[in-house]
Amino acid sequence: AYGASHPDRVFARYRAEAGALGYQFCGLYQYLVAGQDVITQARAFLKLTGKLAPHEVAILDLEEGAGDQAPRAAQWAALVDGTLGGTSWLYSGLDFAQEHGLGPVFAGPRHTWVAAYGDTEPALGHSLWQSTNGTVGANRTNWPGAGFCDSNLYHGTLAQLAGLIQRG
User: Fold this and answer.
1) Among residues 142, 137, 135, which one has the least CA distance to residue 153?
2) Other beta carbons less than 10 A from residue 142's beta carbon
3) Which of 37, 89, 22, 33 shows the shortest CA–CA distance to 59?
4) pLDDT at 53
5) For residue 167, what pLDDT is reported?
6) Cα dist from 94 to 37, 141, 163, whole Å
7) CA-to-CA distance for 61 and 28, rounded, in angstroms?
8) pLDDT value, residue 122
9) Beta pairing class for 142-143 and 151-153
10) Which of 57, 96, 159, 164 has the largest CB neighbor count within 10 A?
11) Burial class (CB in 10 A: 0-12, 13-18, 19+), 23
């Protein structure tokens, strides 16, 4: 989802396909828009997703806004986690996270996913590293059937990644 009023039109189909194909880890994320109320956006996300399947995790995509964004992330997570009964993840770009107060969240116990397209893995704490946008960055790969696209690195097996999904 993007903000409070722009759901992904193919979300339900792709979500069902991921479940039918036996995906072990599937992130359902919402891009948080700076000019919209956090709680309104979180409620729209919850309405769209409903209950999560065992292989699904909610992810907050926080990449815009002025000043310290940690309170906005905490508001979203409190409502989403409290409603879904699990622990969501936080996704952000390296520079944005460092410049907008998210460093402590990335250093804490919450699982995080950082976008950083340099040659080396960032020092900022993270569970998952988006190492390329398909054009620049480390681990750039021409994937069969997809070509050059966003790629991520996790230091473990798929089963271990799936084990990071936390339910209350």
Assistant:
1) 137
2) 9
3) 89
4) 95
5) 80
6) 24, 21, 25
7) 10
8) 97
9) unpaired
10) 57
11) middle
- How many residues are given for the chain? 168
pTM, two decimals, is: 0.94
Residue 14's identity, in one-letter code, is Y
Sign of the Cα torsion 14, 15, 18, 23 reads positive
The token pair at 120 is: 């080396």
- Asked if residues 118 and 138 have their Cβ atoms less than 8 Å apart, the reply is yes
Instruction: Provide the pLDDT for residue 168.
Output: 67
Average pLDDT of each block of 10 consecutive residues along the chain (168 residues)? 92 95 96 98 96 96 98 98 96 98 96 96 97 93 92 95 89
The DSSP-derived string for the chain is: -BTTTB--TTHHHHHHHHHHTT-S-EEEEEEPPTTS-HHHHHHHHHHHH-SPPTTEEEEEE----SS--HHHHHHHHHHHHHHHTEE-EEEEEHHHHHHTT-HHHHHSSS-EEEE--SSS--SS--SEEEEE-SSSBTT--EETTTEE--EEE-SS-HHHHHTT-EE-
- How far the first Cα of the chain sits from its last, in Å, is 23
